Amino acid sequence: xxxxxxxxxxxxxxxxxxxxxxxxxxxxxxxxxxxxxxxxxxxxxxxxxxxxxxxxx
Length: 57
What we know:
Layout: H1 18-29, H2 40-44, H3 51-54
């Protein structure tokens, strides 16, 4: 895949950090995958029920 694409993956990673998941996805995709967690403000702006409360942490 030569075109850059943004794919958002949301889920629990347990004791693994997002960087570990990104590294695993890089292996599967065969190209670099970046881990870029949202800021607290971005998270609060997602608009789903509880986003504001969860974004306060």
